[in-house]
Amino acid sequence: MANKILEKRYEISPSARKIDRAMTHFIKVGGISIIVAVFAIFVFIFSQIFPLFKGAEVTYLNEWKIPDGDFIALGTDEWTERPFLMNRDGSFLFVDLPAHGTTQWVHPVYPTNITIATLYYRPKSAHAVLGTTDGQFGFINVRYKPEYTNDQRVINATVNVESLYPVGKPGHPIRQIHLAITENDRMVAVIQDVDGQREVHAANLSQRRTLMGGNKLSYGKNHALTSLITGEPTDILVNSRSDSVMVITDSNRVHYLYREASGFVSRQVFEPFADDPDASIAGADFLFGDDSIVFTSTKGHNRVFSLFIPEGGNQRLFGQTKTFDNLPAKATAFTPSLRNKAFLIGGERFASLRYSTTETIRWQDQLPFTVKLSGLSGKYDRMLLLDDQQKLHIYAINDPHPEASLKAFFGKIWYEGASAPKYEWQSTGGTDDFEPKLSMIPLIIGSLKGTLYAMLFSVPLALLAALYTSQFASPNFKRYIKPLMEIMASLPSVILGFLAALWLAPLFENRVPSILLVLIIVPAVTLTFGTVWGKMSFNVRRRIPEGAEIFAVIPLIIAAGYIGWQLGPWLESLLFVARDITTGEPIADFRMWWPQFTGLPFEQRNSLVVGFMMGFAVIPIIFTITEDALSNVPASFRSSSLALGASRWQTAMRVILPTASAGIFSAIMIGFGRAVGETMIVLMATGNTPIMDFNIFSGMRTLSANIAVELPEAPHHGTLYRALFLGSMLLFMMTFIVNTLAEILRHHLREKYKAV
Predict the structure, then answer these.
(1) 439 and which of 334, 423, 555, 567 could share a cystine (Cβ 3.0–4.6 Å)?
(2) Residues 198, 232: Cα–Cα separation, whole Å
(3) Residues 580-603, mean pLDDT to the nearest whole number
(4) Torsion of the alpha carbons at 526, 530, 536 and 541, rounded to the nearest 10
(5) What is the torsional sign of CA 550, 555, 559, 562?
(6) Rounded mean pLDDT of 139-148?
(7) Is 60 exceeded by the pLDDT of residue 654?
(8) Which of the following CATH numbers is that of domain 110-138+147-270: 3.30.1490.270, 2.40.280.10, 2.130.10.10, 3.90.1170.20?
(9) CB under 8 Å to 476, separation ≥6 — which residues?
(10) Residue 216, Cβ density class (10 Å: 0-12 exposed, 13-18 middle, ≥19 buried)
(11) Which part of the chain is CATH 2.130.10.10?
(12) What is the C-alpha separation between 708 and 683, in angstroms, rounded?
């Protein structure tokens, strides 16, 4: 009977059993949902990153048979609706693609009594230039204007010929010609046949706008350049700034002639294929921006030479910066993009789309024909190829992220103007021909740098404070200090960043020696007090209530800090004396001494400021969790240790700390995660310069701060937009790897000390 009553007493009711079953399922579903949500976030981020590493997609659209002609140039409008072919006699053939390839010849009105000897078309300025058999040149304007008729857009094209101007020696034919047009200047360079010899000349015209919106040209000066080169000139280039002329000779040398106030000077002579004596220059042309030249050889070599200031030099010179895989055959057509650093090369039965910055082949394919002329639309979305059978082929290009690659994000890139390959982040620039610099390495280094200095400051203070509060402080002191630390943890990051940027940074800038003294004197005074206190007699120490020692040391710490702060200027005048840059006189200034002594910069918003303030944000988190872990060690452990004759310090170090090590390690890792992901403090107090050094007096840019800074500038689904997702993925991977390793170590510590 008693057994039945006992069984009934512990019998679970049906309703409780149902509730228990329901809650069990609810918890399972909740846990699985969290895992699925985290995995879904990871998949979404990966889906945004994946397109960065895809090559160009080139789709064949159509082909059109065009009338016969001796075509020497191919151009197109912005919308790729009315491309044109420039004939050697100066006529233009326009192809109306929306009208199923309908063609129209346009014959510009040229001045009478001239014979066109050569033509050249520059897509960037939409100008052509002609050279005559009697040593004259003239500009040809190709203009497109959209008009609307019956709600239908029609692209109308006009071709206008300007006045002719003399160049070189009158009466002699021009064999090669090139032009550049700037806002205030025009320049033409020519290769001219003079009595069986080839000479190089250049002429410049000043250009200014009139009140009616037109351009007024004034003929400037003719420059004879033949004496500046050796060998017979075969090709010539003028950069878009009208300040230099590149002359290629039959000896496969390139002469870089620079325009100065007094005239042209020879600045450099180089051989693009000096390492291969059997290779000759097959073609050369500027990339977008005209700071780099793409060279191809008769043996298929493809190299890029860029302007930069060599180390130790003071002038910009050309040097090889890129080397691409060899072309399948000799190049017969070349077109640079007008939007980025891409270029299109065509030849015998092949076409190749390449990107200079990342040194990658975006697309390459075999073709059933030989490319005679090539063209790229201004929007970099269409490709045009004219074959040797007078057929015009149209292709669609889908290449939204040509500047992205593994090398661009994680490797060294030799950017235009740089003297060597380097890691660099600079997503936007002030000009259209800017090269996006998207290296993640400076951001990763910045994240590690900020986290390192924050943890170096916060971990010792937080752990020692938690140890004292849990093991040595009086209960009354503990009752107040722990809520205070939790309040500190709730301070918004923006407030801390504001204080760091506007108050702490200027304060630190002017009193660095004072800070160094405070960091030395305060720990020294604290250790000295502890040593003296430990050697006092028991009768003296027992007069002070247990845990009240803190109130005796606090005034000493404050006094030591004050003394160190006031002695800072004295220390600065004693040790940190620099030479004034202008006068050479000695001056006591740490800000001047540091760069002169170490060669490292000194910035107001630096890692020291970030480490202090971000450490201030991390300390409460580490302190709270560590204090809980130490306080949760069973009291019997402490009592047993003391009963066996151990001191309070020995008990804390050899019993309490090892037992709570797993919890302490978790606290440090949570603090690490807080420091890695911090945004507002580093955003406001570091200067946000993506540099790669661990100088404590320089700033940095972290991955998290970079996302906050660049987000307003990132167009949807653009390269920068996806690069920011890549940064977030790197943040996730960093914290995931660290937390995984931390969990393994924490589990090891728990297993090691679970039997204590």
Answers:
(1) 423
(2) 6
(3) 83
(4) 100
(5) positive
(6) 88
(7) yes
(8) 2.130.10.10
(9) 547
(10) exposed
(11) 110-138+147-270
(12) 8
Of 77-81, 481-485, 706-710, the one with minimum mean pLDDT is 481-485
Question: How far is Cα of residue 418 from the mean position of the Cα atoms in its chain?
Answer: 14
Task: Please check the confidence at residue 1 and state whether its pLDDT lies above 60.
Answer: no
Q: Compute the half-sphere exposure of residue 109: CA atoms within 13 Å on the CB side of its CA.
A: 3
DSSP 51: G
Say if CB 408 and CB 419 are below 8 A apart. Answer: no
What is the distance between the alpha carbons of residues 334 and 352, in angstroms, rounded to a whole number?
10
- d(C-alpha 714, C-alpha 346), whole Å: 34
8 Å CB contact between 610 and 450: yes
pTM higher than 0.70 for the full model?
yes
Q: Which pLDDT band holds residue 14 (cuts at 50, 70, 90)? A: confident
Collapse the DSSP code of 741 into the 3-class scheme (helix H, G, I; strand E, B; otherwise coil) and give the result.
Answer: helix
> d(Cα 435, Cα 288) in Å, to the nearest integer?
10
- Which of 37-41, 210-214, 401-405 has the least mean pLDDT? 210-214
Q: Residue 666: is its pLDDT beyond 70?
A: yes
Q: Could you tell me the pLDDT band of residue 277, with boundaries at 50, 70 and 90? A: confident
Contact 143, 94 (CB under 8 A): no
The amino acid present at 377, given as its one-letter code, is: S
CATH architecture, range 441-509+602-753: Orthogonal Bundle (1.10)
pLDDT of residue 755: 46
Which pLDDT tens digit goes with each residue over 491-515?
788 888 888 888 888 888 888 889 8
Listed in sequence order, the residues at least 6 apart from 29 whose beta carbon sits closer than 8 Å to its beta carbon are none
C-alpha 333/C-alpha 117 separation (Å) is 21
Residues of the chain with CATH 1.10.3720.10: 441-509+602-753
